[in-house]
Amino acid sequence: MKTQAAIKQPLSQARAACTVIHGDSRKELEAFTGEVDLIVTSPPYADARRKHYDSVHPDKYVEWFMSFHEPFFNALKPTGSLVLNIKDKVVQGVRHRFVWETINALSTKGWYAIDDYIWHKTNPMPGRWPTRLSDGWEYCFHLSKSKRPFFNSNAVRKPIGSWVESRLKKLGENDLTRQNSANNSGFGRDISKWVDKKTVLPTNVISKALVGKNKGHPAVFPVDLPLFFIKLLSPENGLVVDPFAGSGTTGIASLSLGRQCVLIENNAQYCQEAIRRLREEAAAQRDELNQLQPTLFFVEAKKKN
Predict the structure, then answer these.
(1) Taking residues 201-215, what's their average pLDDT?
(2) Residue 6 backbone phi and psi in degrees, to 5
(3) Residue boundaries of the structural domains of the chain
(4) What CATH number belongs to 4-157+201-300?
(5) Which of 79-88, 219-228, 240-249 comes out lowest in average pLDDT?
(6) Dihedral sign for Cα atoms in the order 272, 275, 279, 285
(7) 106 phi/psi in degrees, rounded to 5
(8) How far is Cα 36 from Cα 105, in angstroms, rounded to an integer?
(9) Structure pTM?
(10) Within the chain, how many helices (H) and strands (E) appear?
């Protein structure tokens, strides 16, 4: 996991900016029609946050979330993507499937379900339940306006691992050409192609630890989670939006990568917490945080002298 110092370092070189808006994203996104490269967010979970979009009941969640469909769709560029980090809820001992119902409803409105990612929590909250084990993962759904959205897999490559040294040290005769699998599945591999490779593409399982402190918000995801999707699904100097911004984690990730960012949040207290974190954790200077109007703030990353 990246340290705060590791995140701060590139900010001194970036010319990124972040706008924090106190308001309802269904209205505020009208100002960004066709301009957004990526919407990455963790929307309110059903019955999870009181006084936050009225704490939606699971049975009403699909109807409520679909009121955001058109604003989200219109804000994105044709190559833009939407990433939803969300988890379903247990109701009277049974998993309520409002999450899948929501994704299916979006699919009927023109969204393409590109892939389902899993956030594997390496330090899940302990607990004991009569019929369930501890929750150790959450969904991250990737949806888009087209079947070929912007996608930069090279931006998220990871070290290939130490196994390659021992495995490739002495190649056998069968390692020098493509070998089909023994069960005749049609799949095969050529081990020799891995020689001199230093990185490999990751899977769609993202292993990141939970945030130790709630950062002034009850459901904070780690900076590395939006960081992964911003690298993967937005171009350099692109515009990233979090319409349920909470305490501003997406803004910190965006600034660290030099992306422009808009954070929209309908809870004024969370907006103030986001601004505080952008100042402190994203190394934004106080004199670069200018109030443009009562509920709109501008944050510019610290520039290198």
Answers:
(1) 81
(2) -65, -35
(3) 4-157+201-300, 159-200
(4) 3.40.50.150
(5) 219-228
(6) negative
(7) -65, -35
(8) 22
(9) 0.81
(10) 9, 16
